[in-house]
């Protein structure tokens, strides 16, 4: 086996399943299939040593390091372009390596609302999904158990549940209590945030110990990351090969035959398998398909519809913050403990769904404030006493509708460290999302004003940015001419190839996508198993 810390990166003979990508989707599929099938997982990045996480945490809190430095980003390997109307800083929030984006994610895991699956019918805009909430509901429950979710059934606007969360919710923070008074006066419901982090010991991992650096690194392992399921799959016999970027997929007209991958010594290998699962995210998945063009598929593999890479979506951020004339305990908690979906289901043709977030970490930490100051000694101490501890802020995630002119393509001029065209994220944002950001800002300002805060900053439609949730580039549907994968994420064009990523989302909703990715991965794993 090539698992564990071994450096043998040779192909595995007689493999049943080859999975490209060791993030949450690939790891869950590998874990579900490894006990009964020969499974190989290929990932472009390294296997990180858990013992290094404290050192990575130190990088995270030092201003000399940018966020990609924490997880060893490589400018040449990770090169990209951004040719769209809106600049997309792809490398700010992606990791190549075993565990993928869950190594640095914040860990919020909500279910999509029922109307998110039927946006065209219920809201008058966007396509309907080919599945509805009821189809995914049991898989949502399974995903919550697999990841370990702490939550409470206290969201009056959430879709119906079938069982309690695996762990109790984290209690509201001190600043949540301040927000609660204002929201109650305005008639706005607040509720807990489902978190994929342990509020108590779970699945052999400790409860959260409050390091506060959850994004971008959790040293304790209390926050879920996909190495949990990678290691579980390996214990069942799976082979995981790191630093093995897949260059292309070899195929004939209706089947993928092998994944061709490179290794650090400069050689290429061919991993054949009966089934191939591509699970390397909403950017690298369409890129790999486009790189695998052939005589049968001159516009890219699995792209008879012409939609591979199209309909790239992300969630947009809206924020408002300020200061109070009382302590807020800013930076006391490194993740969100309260939110509001009170306005989510008001969505229609003009205003998108959005959720409100109540920050526990607005304003600088004491270390950040000290490092950015130009004073020392007693003067610095007095400045910290004056400036620290009274900041308060809110965020919001806003849905972006799918647009065909928002896409992931290949840059014709720039190549990566293997000579392949880099991904070009051509991101465009529509007016509905921008109007919705304005609406979210209005509500945020009303809450802060009710609190008596002095508003000092706002992120609105003119300076919004992405949440780094890549969606929509391999759309799910029943019509092969209008989608890339079927409702079980199997490609329409190739009978043995599944694309298990958030690229399958026809619409994005306004909640963090990882729980839906996990639920779809578990559902797709059943289809792969049935096909073998």
Automatic annotation (TrEMBL):
Q: Where is the signal peptide?
A: none
Q: Which PROSITE patterns match?
A: 4FE4S_FER_2 (PS51379), MIP (PS00221)
Query: Where is each 4Fe-4S ferredoxin-type domain found?
Result: 198-228
Q: Does the keyword Oxidoreductase apply?
A: yes
Q: What does this protein need as cofactor?
A: FAD
Swiss-Prot/TrEMBL keywords? FAD, Flavoprotein, Oxidoreductase
- What domain of life does the UniProt record list for this protein's source? Archaea
Pfam families documented for this protein = GMC_oxred_C (PF05199), GMC_oxred_N (PF00732)
Task: Work out whether the entry's keyword set contains Flavoprotein.
Answer: yes
Q: Which GO terms describe its molecular function?
A: flavin adenine dinucleotide binding; oxidoreductase activity, acting on CH-OH group of donors
Q: What InterPro entries would the database entry show?
A: 4Fe4S_Fe-S-bd, FAD/NAD-bd_sf, GMC_OxRdtase_N, GMC_OxRtase_C, MIP_CS, P2Ox-like
Q: Which PANTHER family match?
A: PYRANOSE 2-OXIDASE (PTHR42784:SF1)
Q: Which family does it belong to?
A: Belongs to the GMC oxidoreductase family.
Q: What name does UniProt use for this protein? A: GMC family oxidoreductase
Organism encoding this protein = Natronomonas moolapensis (strain DSM 18674 / CECT 7526 / JCM 14361 / 8.8.11)
